[in-house]
Amino acid sequence: MDPARLLLLLLAVAAIGATADVDRQVFMKVTCSAPGNYTDSSRFGKNVAELLSALSTPPPATVGNYRWFRSHTVGAAPDQVSGLAVCYANADADLCLDCINSANSTWFSDLCDDSRNVSFLSSVGCAMRYADAPFFGSADSGDGARLILRSDFRATFASAAAMRKARRGLLSQLAERAGGDALRFATGSQGNKDADIGGAWQVMYGMAECTRDLPLSECSSCLIDLLAVMYEDVGVTNSTSASVMGVSCYLMYQMEPINFIAGMAAVPPAAPPAEPPTGSAAASPAAPPVGPKTTVVIAAMAAAAVTLFSVGA
Ligand SMILES: *[C@@H]1O[C@H](CO)[C@@H](O)[C@H](O)[C@H]1NC(C)=O
Ligand SMILES: *[C@@H]1O[C@H](CO)[C@@H](O)[C@H](O)[C@H]1NC(C)=O
Ligand SMILES: *[C@@H]1O[C@H](CO)[C@@H](O)[C@H](O)[C@H]1NC(C)=O
Ligand SMILES: *[C@@H]1O[C@H](CO)[C@@H](O)[C@H](O)[C@H]1NC(C)=O
C-alpha cells in the first residue's frame, strides 16, 4: 500500500478530466493478480503494450458501436494477452475515451507491479481488463473490482420503502433484459405515485449494461450480483440515485433522465408497468424538475483505498 501512488493516480486522471468537468472527482479501482510476473521488455510485456495500443486506437468500426466496446488478443501462449475496454453508456464520451487512450502499458505495469492480469475501473465510466489467458464470455466476479457511487438523497419519496420498491421493479427488469440485447444494454424508467405525499408523480430512470463479450446468462448473473450490492450496501440501500460499476457489468438509477453516449440511447424507455400508477413514465410531464447537479461521492472510499493496490489471486 502506497498512499503517494494512490494520490498520483487520482491526480493523473483528474487532470485529464479537468478539461471537461472541473467539478468531477474521479475514482479508480484496480485489481492486480500477482506482482513481478513480467518485464516491459519481455515478450509478454511487449504483447501488453501492443494490446493496449490496439484498444486505444481501434480500426474503423466493423462491428456496430465498436467505439464503445473493444476487445483484442495478441500473441500465442504462454505470452498471449487478451483484453477489452468499454465505455459504459452514460459515460462522458471525451473523458471515457481519454481514460482508455491514456491507459498505456507503462502506466498499468507501474500501477499493478507487473501483474499479468489487471482489472481497472474509473468512475468516468471506463472499464478495462486484460489477462494472460482468454476470458471473453465470462464475467469478472471479483467483489474488489467494483465502484459504488451514489449522489445525495434529494428526491421526495414518502419512504425509503417506496423508493426501494420502485427501484426493485425497474432494475430487476433491466438486469434481465440487458443480456438479450445486441449491445448488452437496457434502459427504462419507472413511475411512482406516492399517495403519502399528495400523489406527486415521480420517475426513476435506470440502465443496465454488460461488456459485449458476455452471453445472456453471464450478463444476467453479473447484473444480479450488482443488484444485490444495491440492496445490501448501507451506502446506497436507501439512496434515490446510485450506481454500481463493475469490470464486466454496470447498473445505475437516478431521478432524472440519463444522458447517453452516441448510439447508446437506441433502446426506448420501458413502458410503465401495468399495475402501479397510471400515465407514461417516458412522457410524464410531471417528472420532477432537474435539480442542481449533485456531487457524486464514493460510498466506500476507505475500502477503495485499501483495495486499490491490494494483490490477490
Ligand atoms: C508469477 O510469479 C510467481 C512467482 O514469482 C510464479 O510462481 C507464477 O508461476 C507466475 N505466474 C505466471 C503466470 O507466470
Ligand atoms: C503513458 O501514460 C502516462 C499517463 O497517461 C503518460 O504520462 C506517459 O507519457 C505515457 N507513456 C507513453 C510511452 O505513451
Ligand atoms: C489470469 O486470468 C486468467 C483468465 O481469466 C486465469 O485463467 C488465470 O488464472 C489468472 N491468473 C492469475 C494469477 O490470477
Ligand atoms: C433504510 O430505510 C429503512 C426504513 O425503510 C431503515 O430502517 C434503514 O435503517 C435504512 N438503512 C440505512 C442504511 O439508512
UniProtKB/TrEMBL annotation:
Keywords, alphabetical: Repeat, Signal
Pfam families noted in UniProt: Stress-antifung (PF01657)
Entry superkingdom: Eukaryota
PANTHER family per UniProt: CYSTEINE-RICH REPEAT SECRETORY PROTEIN, OS12G0608700 PROTEIN
InterPro entries listed in its UniProt record: GNK2, GNK2_sf
Range of residues in the leader sequence: 1-20
Organism this protein belongs to: Setaria viridis (Green bristlegrass)
Protein's UniProt name: Gnk2-homologous domain-containing protein
PROSITE patterns per UniProt: GNK2
Domain annotation Gnk2-homologous: ranges: 26-135, 145-258
